[in-house]
Specification:
mainly alpha; globular
Amino acid sequence: AARRAARQMAPAVLAGLRTDADALDRDRSAPDWVPRALDFDLRFHDAIAEAAGNRRLQADIARYRLLVRAFCRMTGSPKNLSDALQEHRAILAALEARDSAAAARHAASHVDNRFKIVLDELFPEDA
């Protein structure tokens, strides 16, 4: 989806995501930062799915996002959300540059990183 979105995402959508990401970066100490970061995460992924221009892919992403959203709420510490925001910013930079390979690479890394965090937090290894 990120690969396709890099070629097709509307400039206004990119600008809105950039504005929101920059605001989150500036306001990390705000009392409502965590829910705002969770909302941005949802909007960010939805925007990529929509820009991909494939209804089936968009529906699949939406379905998996429900599951991921539950995991985000369970493991959504400020640290984890901050790390995810930086990963989103890398994806966003690639989308803005219209670099489809970099967008796909950063998106895959983001998914892998978040998956590992969820597994580590929900199923910590016994010491």
